[in-house]
Amino acid sequence: MPRPIEALIHTDALAHNLARARQAAPDSRLWAVVKANAYGHGIERAYPGMRSADGFALLDLAEAERIRACGWRGPVLLLEGVFEPRDLELCSRLDLWHAVHCNEQIDWLAGHKTERAHTVVLKMNSGMNRLGFVPAAYRSAWARLNAMPQVESIVLATHFSDADGPRGIAHQLAAFEQATHDLPGPRSLANSAAILRHGTVPGVHSDWVRAGILSYGSAPDFPEHDIRHWDLRPAMTLRSQLIATQQLAAGDTVGYGSSFTAREPMRIGIVACGYADGYPRHAGTDTPVLVDGVRSGTVGRVSMDMLAVDLTPVPAAGIGSEVVLWGRAGNGEVLAIDDVARAAGTIGYELMCALAPRVPIRAVEAGA
Asked: Average model confidence (pLDDT) for the chain?
């Protein structure tokens, strides 16, 4: 039989999470963000659960071709725009919307010959200081684009750096509104954290919202709030099985470096999962897991192909018992990926995207 590790993609959870975004921003159109291969879930696997979106936002032309191959005929947005002039040819052919964040992209568009005028998303750097025109230069960029026959429509956009934290969005929102107050065109401001946390602030949800990490069942402002608070469901389960057990005496050590020493007799299980599967090597003892649906924790160092778990809370567990590294157990219990990420000193985004190619992945319907 194959090695007993697999990842499940729950299409019902994806649909539920997008519905939550719509509930939070009922008057906005919704971008489902599927960059990074749908945050590690796989564009083709995620698509059936995300078809209720009004558009798909992603990073590169290959991803855009894949979402079109799924049968999507609505808006598709390149969040970073094009990377060289010839990319605009495929934008025309695939009818892609694309971000414009620098003068070079405007120059490329001015030289582009197309029979189909483009929709562009003009990015403002309102304080994130990654991509976009600073507020003082934004209006002149808009004027250049507005005068071009290659441009049919301009969406005004920015990205919040602190929607998930105490600084908040007021400073960026003020900069955006001051620079765009009399410019026509739809707006797009809210990311996942702004969708859920700042919906009562006028203008934040605007015409388009961008549902990223919330779509996949991770709380955008964890640990202040968890997925239960926001009524989100894990879209990915990483699960394996116990392949061995060991009975330890007090003083016995576990794993490389003997980083764990048993204080008393205890039983541990060995799981077919390691850092070569994408599980974080830096996850230390007591990183949460579910064994037969019961919460327990890891023991000692994670190795390439295996890790150890404490079987004290589940004395009946043995070879073949289900171990959920994150996601939904067979008995319905949930281990949020955010809980695992916090114990490993990272964030849920990284764990999703780090799933290794050797792990089999399959999409499942509700209840699976």
From this structure: 97
Q: Residue 257 — pLDDT band, cuts 50, 70, 90?
A: very high
Distance CA 262, CA 285 (A): 12
Instruction: Report yes or no: 133 and 123 within 8 Å, Cβ to Cβ.
Output: yes
**pLDDT tens-digit readout, 219-256:** 999 999 999 999 999 999 999 999 999 999 999 999 99
Return the pLDDT at 115: 87
Q: Check if the beta carbon of residue 130 is closer than 8 Å to that of residue 96.
A: no
Cα separation of 238 and 323, whole Å? 9
Q: What is the 3-state secondary structure (H, E, C) of 60-112?
A: CHHHHHHHHHCCCCCCEEECCCCCCCCHHHHHHHHCCEEEECCHHHHHHHHCC
Residue 29 has pLDDT above 70, yes or no: yes
User: Using an 8 Å Cβ cutoff, are 285 and 299 in contact?
Assistant: yes
The residues that are catalytic are 35, 256
Structure tokens at 249: 């005496």
pTM, to two decimals: 0.95
Across the range 52-80, mean pLDDT stands at: 98
CB 68 within 8 A of CB 47: no
| pLDDT tens figures, 348-357 | 999 999 999 9
pLDDT-based confidence at residue 1 (cuts at 50, 70, 90): confident
To 10 degrees, the CA torsion angle through 117, 37, 353, 366? Answer: 120
Structure tokens, 46: 């995620």
The rounded distance, in Å, linking the Cα atoms of 252 and 3 is 28
At 145 the three-state DSSP class reads helix
Q: What are the tokens at 305?
A: 């192909």
Q: What is the mean pLDDT of residues 106-120?
A: 96
**CA gap 159, 212 in Å, rounded:** 12
CA-to-CA dists, residue 311 to 219, 305, 355, angstroms? 29, 19, 25
Spatial neighbors of 357 by CB under 8 A, at least 6 apart, are: none
Domains and CATH numbers, the chain: 11-218 (3.20.20.10), 236-364 (2.40.37.10)
Contacts of 167 (CB under 8 A, 6+ apart): none
